[in-house]
Amino acid sequence: PAQQQQQQQEDGGGASATPQRVLFPPTFSVSEIKNKQRRHFMFLRWKQQQRKEKLAAKKKRRKEREALGDKAPPKAVPKTIENQRVYDETTVDPNDEEVAFDEATDEFAPYFNRQTVPKILITTSDRPRGRTVRFCEQLSTVIPNSHVYYRRGLALKRIIPQCIARDFTDLIVINEDRKIPNGLVLSHLPDGPTAHFRMSSVRLRKEIKRKGKEPTEHVPEVILNNFTTRLGHSIGRMFASLFPHDPQFIGRQVATFHNQRDYIFFRFHRYIFKSEKKVGIQELGPRFTLKLRSLQKGTFDSKFGEYEWIHKRREMDMNRRKFHL
Amino acid sequence: PQVVWDMLGNKQFCSYKITTKTQNFCRNEYNLTGLCNRSSCPLANSQYATIREEKGRCYLYMKTIERAPFPRRLWERVLLSKNYEKALEEIDENLIYWPRFIRHKCKQRFTKITQYLIRIRKLTLKRQRKIVPLRRKIERREKRREEKALIAAQLDNAIEKELLERLKQDTYGDIYNFPIHAFDKALQQQEADSESESDAEKEEEEEEELDKREFVEADDSDLSDFEDMDKLETSSEEEQEEEEEVEKKASHSKSKGKTPLKGPARRKRPYIEIEYEEETEPASKTKAA
């Protein structure tokens, strides 16, 4: 091909000494050149050409749009992953009766009917390291009515009956690996579902830039975003049941669980309404992201538990447009 | 014997020997103490004994001169009993007339082995950490996806939007004094007078107003019944302000009646469930309430 090029250059450039437009055979592609330098150079040139063409096309399109004026067709909506999401059959329809009935009779019903007040027990795996301990403390300030207890080698199965006896409604276990928290087990106690999450990008309060002061004792509001499917719904209710039902608006604090593409982002803010259309938020409190790994029907039992949902990597990570929460 | 030791011990190379700064170790599996010494080298001693354990049972291995030319039958092994004292007696029995050093070291080794076996058995009863290997590719993939999800989430915007929505739907009651908001609502509803839907709404509102009017009068008199006095005071102040503004602007009588009524009426709302919300169902929420 190099020889062909040269020949054609000589042929075409008979009139001018410098080759202006080199003619390549139609099936030639830049990747066929064996010489790396030359190939790189040709590729860059090709790229520049592409960019120019793209720019020209854009300009043309914009001119056409302006020329049409009002009659211009509406702008095309860019495709995002959320737009292209594979439709999940278990998506909850807000008016679905079956769902409403289920929710009225599931394990969170007493909470939503205001019969129980949440009382949370936060603990860690064995021998927690500094970061995890601090994270637990901060978490306990965020969630009202929560207590941190250290686990000195106690088996979870034995803790659970004791907790139920002492009227705890939820149990949070933060698993630690190499001095950083990396897992969260959230168990609703009187025989409720257990969710096991993978926790990542944990930021303690001092690591958050421009943070505010400490969270006060007021009960925060809860925002749950984007929990669309049945599974997402139940997880959302689990999160909601951690916080007492009546938020104190004087506190102006809000805890957010935002689900995006199966990642649940937790943030804790203080808000202030500057005017009607503007609100300012200031982040205080820890932040972390969770990814659901499994949901068990009963309380924590790794061997004999009945799993409602497990993240199966082979099947579920294959499709980039399919999400489960 | 001595010859072997002269060669291997100091002068030449012994493949079992490991030298460190302070000590010489012997890697031979039949070694009694683990150190490289004249007295504990199994190669240099024609009469030697060791304790080794296999699958939780201890065996006494013995080597004698008679069997030196038969490497396959060199090491004779005896199973020791599980009982500690009995096993010690068995060692003594088997190694009777043997040098003191070997007997002593054998018993020491046996003691240590039984101790660590006991420890293993105790530990397996406790909970053990299951070590799960991380897959690098998967970790990287998850991390990347999380970053992209974070960017796509636009958390701050989402939270602000949600809070403004809640403000619009009066979930906060009368804490925030934005009279313009109530005004706009009232004005909009006036403009939609001619439509039938709004008529129906108006009728409902009127009915509500009537009910609430009665309500209001009763409430205003019974201030002591309310739990949060502070809120009441502030809201009553706001009511007064609103009333003044309303009078100044000289608007419709309906709106006049509306805005001050909204105060106590709104107070009823915060007791209704507000937390569990999704972005898809704002309208149904209020209806359910």
CATH architecture of the largest domain in chain A: 3-Layer(aba) Sandwich
Q: Could you spell the SSE succession of chain B in H and E letters?
A: HEEEEEHHHHHHHHH
- Most extensive chain interface and residues per partner: A-B, 50 and 43 residues
Oligomer: heterodimer
How many helices of chain B? The count is: 10
Q: Structural class of the secondary elements of chain B?
A: mainly alpha
What overall geometry of chain B do the principal axes of the alpha carbons give?
Answer: elongated
CATH top-level class of the largest domain in chain A: Alpha Beta
Percent helix of chain A, as a range, is 25-40%
Largest sheet of chain B: 3 strands, antiparallel
- Name the structural class of chain A: alpha+beta
Distance between the termini of chain A: 54 Å
Mean of residue pLDDT values of chain A: 82
Number of helices of chain A: 8
Looking at CATH, which topology of the domain at 1-125 in chain B would you report? Enolase-like, domain 1
Give me a quick take on this structure.
The complex is a heterodimer of chains A (325) and B (289). Chain A is of the alpha+beta class and 325 residues long.
